[in-house]
Amino acid sequence: MGMQFTVLSSGSTGNATVVQNESATVLVDVGMSAKRMDELFKEREVDPTSIDAIVITHEHSDHIKGLGALARKYDLPVYANEATWGALDKHIGKIADEKKVVMQTGEARDFGTLRVESYGISHDAAEPVGYCFYDGEEKLSLATDLGYMSDKVRDAISDSNVLVLESNHDVEMLRMGRYPWNIKRRILSDVGHLSNEASGEALSQLMTGNTKRTYLAHLSREHNMMDLAKMTVRDVMEDHGIFFKEDEFQLRDTYYDQPTPWDRVGKP
User: Fold this and answer.
1) CATH fold group of domain 4-264
2) What is the per-residue pLDDT for 51?
3) Which domain of life is it from (predicted)?
4) What are the two backbone dihedrals, phi and then psi, of residue 197, each rounded to the nearest 5 degrees?
5) pLDDT, tens digit (0-9, with 9 covering 90-100), for 117-171
6) Where exactly are the structural domains of the chain?
7) For 23-46, b where at least 16 C-beta lie within 10 A, e where not — what string?
């Protein structure tokens, strides 16, 4: 089987991803209601009682909206760093102490043969993180809500077979959009979100022979479009002299209203 994953939902209305191999299933974030999560689980044939851990990136509502209800319903352990737990508690209701696990930034945990390692990111939350997953030689990295691509983040997610990388907004669409300036300024800041252009710049530096697919994630419904994001990222990469054919490397979509198909990380 190897490692496989599905992005159940991605965007400001809710985020969740399932990663699994033969021995473990891990859920990253619970950004929708427990009812909606159950619908998504059913669509991708995930048995929620088989989930070994929920790991949390940060405490914003589009990442933890259904966390408390889902964890209580299926008696699931939740992993987050200490600062995130401090910010989470008032939002998710009561979770049994034995189900609240502190996993500090930079720490790795093994769930069977599936290894999960967190790394720090720049976002306006208590102590936000991204996650890398390992199964033998296979590596999957989830990198959204970045603010900017720091050297530490780049080092953490380098040499991934598959990346789920933020491509949140088109800068001009955002500048011309209806959001108040204070929100625009926050999105554009180093603790906000990665633009299409910034995503292309980051991917240009991350491309290795190991990297076969990148899913563009956390797209703004107000200030982005799937085709525009992929076109911009591709254009930036070509400006850096990186040209590719579909059988060599693929840019793929994520969705706010439907899950991606299951994808085998080690599959060419």
Assistant:
1) Metallo-beta-lactamase; Chain A (3.60.15)
2) 98
3) Bacteria
4) -65, -45
5) 999 999 999 999 999 999 999 999 999 999 999 999 999 999 999 999 999 999 9
6) 4-264
7) ebbbbbbbbbebebbbebbeeeeb
